[in-house]
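note to self — DONT lose this again. spent like an hour looking for the file last time. sequence + predicted structure for the chain T wanted, 329 res
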Amino acid sequence: MLYNLHWPQELWLNPLLLLVVVLASVLLPLPAEYHPLTLYRYFARALGHKVNPDPNRPRQQLYISGTLALLVATVPLLALVYSLLQFSELPQLFDALLLFACLDWQQRRSTALQIQQTLQRNQLALAREQAAALLLRRRDNLTSMGLSKALCESLILRSSSEVIATLLWFLVGGGLAALSYRLLLVLQQQWNSKTIAGRHFGRPVSLLVQLLSAPALLFSCISLALHYGIRRCWRLYRTAEWRIKQQRRNFGALPYCLLCCAAAALRRSLGGPVYYDEVKLSRSRITLIQEPAAADITRTLKLTRQNHLAVLTLAAVIVLLQLTWLLSY
């Protein structure tokens, strides 16, 4: 079978499968209550509460328990999926189903549009509650402008980490690679290392996700910079508060660069302080003339769609190159 051939050959159908699955996820999105990732989020949350009942334990102990919890939450499930994949008569179809189970962006998009409508009706309290699905930070202290800015930042970052990174890992390693990354991302979100409870416990999975999502963040930065001006994005990157050491620790280089590109595209200010629990993180500011408003949520979704189309274009180009190579023989 094709699946048992060497790496360059066993993954030759992945670009075509990616295009088909992404189209299916847009046309036939799974409801949130029936999506496999929703169940896994509940499991990860419960496991975190069970294994990490006291965040005041010694740091080294929390690192060890966080690493062991990471292994318990991923290795058995991935081993089961790998076993099923080996015995599957249609491994490419199995890969496609795995990728489909990893994509839930339509839920994010629908939630963001609902929040935008709520903000435009001046129902701030309700909008804060609805934003729980998209924001890990505190929301009770956010104004309408602050909530709009937080949502714009969340959408552009989640688009890269949840969609683009998943698709790129599928191209590189198939359904098992995409699923492995997506499970780690769910754990990183549920054991948020920026909160008091997850400060040390969630650090191992957080470092792993940062490493694995870096190519997708870089891809998104390049895509936005090429569309909206490399010089403009670079100017924002250099002139903001990135040089301040304390703020640099609270903003990774690639997420900061991506938000600079998004700010240049939207022509809106992004970044600034953020609260997790009672802890204030002083992040770099990306200052422009105007602050985000509710209407900018739709504009941010258009930016995410543009980045998604860039990945799909890459996959389509690979498919065309493969067809050209096949036809040449």
